[in-house]
Amino acid sequence: MADQDGGGYLSNDQMDTQDKNKLAPLTILPVTIKQIHSGEPNVEKTGITIDDNHSKWYTVVALVLTKEVTQLHCKFTLDDTTGQIEGSVYLDKFKDVPAYQNLLDSITEQTYVRVVGGVRLFGEKPSISITRILPVTDFNEITFHLTEAAYLHTQYARSKGQSTDAPAKQYIQPNNYNNYNAQDGSDEGLQEQLYQMIVEQPSSIAALSARLRRSEKEIAVVLEQLNSNGRIYLRDRGIYTAE
């Protein structure tokens, strides 16, 4: 993959030089898992097209739910709160790269990763053929990725003259949590919102902040209250669980 400004994503120079009415395609397109499932099959019906961007490479930031290692591949089930998808690293490609093997060994369940790869269709089911995977060590990256994916989706929709209000909200608000913002805004109400979210999906402060559109400081204060009451627990890598 060619080296791109900002890791292959949209740069200011790219925005300034491209046609105002049509955005240039990106080498690596930041997306959510929901966008992948909603993508249109390409002409060969072996991959997908998202927002008319014929990129061969996509990047997702997600939680590793499961990890399975065989002689042929290392398979992950990934969840970014908008959906779930399987991703696989084919080990033959990296059998002579010990550093990459060590990296794969270090990635465990209930940790966040950024993956880059192509989307393959088997029947109508998409999966990610992973060419690059990195642990997420700064949880601000989760929030940034969701924001970037929503921003780019909005820009591509505008370039086609489509309404952008609903899609922008759709990709920032994960599907299982859309009703939470309408609930009681008090500390007690927020406690229950956060508790239910963590029961359903162990999460970090940054991820919860992005879902509820509340400041990380506010989320941290309420999580500390829940933690002090023994309702949730802080695990490795800043992940809160209810177990």
UniProtKB/TrEMBL annotation:
Keywords: DNA-binding, Nucleus
Gene Ontology CC, one term: site of double-strand break
UniProt-listed InterPro entries: NA-bd_OB-fold, NA-bd_OB_tRNA, RFA2-like
GO terms, molecular function: single-stranded DNA binding
Keyword field contains DNA-binding: yes
GO terms for biological process, alphabetical: DNA replication; double-strand break repair via homologous recombination; nucleotide-excision repair
Domain OB: 59-135
Location(s), subcellular: Nucleus
Name of the protein described by the UniProt record: Replication factor A protein
Organism: Planoprotostelium fungivorum
